[in-house]
Amino acid sequence: MGVQLAKSAIDLGIVISNSERSLAFYRDLLGFEHVADIPMPLGGGGTMHRLNCGDTLIKLVKFDDNPERAGSGGITGATGLRYFTMIVSNLAEIMAACEAAGAPVAVPITEVRPGVTIGMVEDPDGNWVEFVENG
Q1: What class has domain 74-134?
Q2: Which residues pair with residue 101 across a beta bridge?
Q3: Whole-number Å distance between alpha carbons of 33 and 35
Q4: CATH number of this structure's domain 11-63, picked from the four choices 3.30.420.40, 3.40.50.10770, 3.30.930.10, 3.10.180.10
Q5: Using an 8 Å Cβ cutoff, are 29 and 23 in contact?
Q6: Which long-range contacts (CB under 8 A, 24 or more apart) does 95-101 make?
Q7: pLDDT at 5
Q8: Domains in the chain: boundaries
Q9: What share of the chain has pLDDT > 90, as a percent?
Q10: Secondary structure of residue 91 in the 3-state scheme
Q11: Can you tell me the distance from the alpha carbon of 9 to that of 78, in angstroms, rounded to the nearest whole number?
């Protein structure tokens, strides 16, 4: 059978604790296009901030009552979704802007194999965001 995709990218939901801080990070710092805010019909109410990242829709979900925070500690801190990756062409510029804005650097710019360089930062809720540049 298999999944028959109707869209070439995924939509990613990220539960956040503070709309202003998360929008400042994803919309203002990273430059994702804010396309809508809609009521969150599940989980007791809240708001879903919808942002475009290429063909991917990032759904920042702020519930009226913040849930408990999942395990921290980056990639090895817990099971489950720990980070997401974007392929970029301006890694040094992104990492410098994130550092200047005070985003914690989880992994500084590192060549992980010939021609492939990464950097990772934490969003305001401690989720890791990876940027990969292919040489």
Answers
A1: alpha beta
A2: none
A3: 6
A4: 3.10.180.10
A5: no
A6: 95/119, 95/121, 95/131, 97/29, 98/29, 101/25, 101/29
A7: 83
A8: 11-63, 74-134
A9: 77
A10: helix
A11: 25
User: Among 31, 29, 41, 130, which residue's Cα sits nearest to residue 87?
Assistant: 130
Neighbours of 95 (CB within 10 A): 23
Same-fold call for 11-63 versus 74-134? no
**pLDDT, position 38:** 97
Asked if pLDDT for residue 122 goes beyond 90, the answer is: yes
Residue the block writes with tokens 């203002």: 28
Query: In this structure, what token pair is assigned to residue 55?
Result: 């063909």
Nearest of 19, 132, 101 to residue 122 by alpha carbon: 101
Quickly tell me which residue has 């500084």 as its tokens.
Answer: 108
* Rounded distance between C-alpha atoms, residue 40 and residue 62, angstroms: 8
